[in-house]
Amino acid sequence: MSDLRIRAAAERDIDQVLAFWREAAEGTSVSDDRDGVARLLARDPEALLLAERDGQLVGTVIAGWDGWRCSLYRLAVLPSQRRQGISRALLAAAEERFAALGGRRGDAMVLDENERAHRAWQAAGYAPQPQWSRWVKTLTS
Questions:
Q1: For the domain that residue 8 is a member of, what is the CATH number?
Q2: Residue 15 lies in a domain
Q3: Contact assessment for residue 31 and residue 63, using Cβ atoms and an 8 Å cutoff
């Protein structure tokens, strides 16, 4: 993994990240657009972590911190690069960020039907919390 570089995304990366998610991420989000990612970076410039190998984007994770909760979203690895420790490295970087900010627990959003993701999250030490359900309301049309 010495050839893997993890860094925070910048505004210049937004279009590349959106294209990457279309290829590598499961599902979509109401925030998967240029404005959504730009707002994330404006609010928390260190939240979107990118993994690069030889200048190519190979993985992402959003490690959001609101002062109360450590939230993980959009863990994605390029299909041709999976099972090489990239998600583990991204999660380690996210956890280091959270610890430095005083975070106490990472909460991950994981699609129920994405079995491959379940295995990756479990391998990193995460487990579903069966007593909670996610309740949502879309605020934009």
A1: 3.40.630.30
A2: yes
A3: no
Record the pTM. 0.88
pLDDT of residue 115 exceeding 90: no
Structure tokens at 27: 């599902």
Instruction: Say if residues 8 and 48 touch (Cβ distance below 8 Å).
Output: yes
Range of the domain at 32: 4-123
Nearest-angstrom CA–CA distance, 10 and 48: 9
Residue 72 pairs with which residues in a beta bridge? 63, 108
Could you give the 3-state DSSP secondary structure of residue 140?
Answer: coil
The helix/strand/coil state of 84 is: coil
Residue 51, helix vs strand vs coil:
strand
Q: What is the pLDDT of residues 88-107, one digit of tens each?
A: 999 999 999 999 999 998 88
In-domain check, residue 139: no
